Amino acid sequence: MLRERRMAPTEMIEIRRVGSWDVNEIAGLYREGGWWRDEWDPQGLADLIRGSFAFFVAVEPGGSAVGMGRVIADGVSDAYIQDLVVGSAYRGRGIGDRILGSCVTACHEAGITWIALIAEPDTERFYQSRGFVVMEHYTPMKFGGDDHPCSQ
Fold it and tell me: What residue ranges do the domains of the chain occupy?
């Protein structure tokens, strides 16, 4: 018989700003968010964490990561919140709100006030209820080609 994992009370979950973390735990969170491909090497996540303006991990008392979020920024004027995810067993308990708040606070403490993100479908209300607004007349875009047209 499998023993059910006991979840820590929400108030015991600590949000930590980190410069490194167990890459396999982070890969697991990316997997839960639907953002991970099995052929990717988790070791590359060490550089991703280190290269972020701010990287936050929600940590249960045993030391395991149950959520994360990161900020990419120039450190002066603009920032983007990326990769905010909470493990499925911990969702709906305010942990994502605390991670998001930590991301915004890190930006404000650096004097960054232009903070954006691209919300996954069906998450808009979460972000809107926390002060984010839809940027009317703007379209998020992503480079999708193999050729680099700017280098020609």
Answer: 10-151
CA-to-CA separations, 80 to 44, 77, 102, in angstroms, rounded: 20, 11, 13
Residue 19, both tokens: 């410069």
Q: How many CB atoms lie within 10 A of CB 65?
A: 20
pLDDT in tens, 33-92: 988 988 999 999 999 999 999 999 999 999 999 999 999 999 999 999 999 999 999 999
How far is 29 from 37, CA to CA, in rounded Å?
12
At 128, the amino acid letter reads Q
Domain 10-151 has CATH 3.40.47.10: no
DSSP string, 74-88: -SSSEEEEEEEEE-G
Which pTM does this prediction carry? Answer: 0.87
Are 55 and 17 in contact by the 8 Å Cβ rule? The answer is: yes
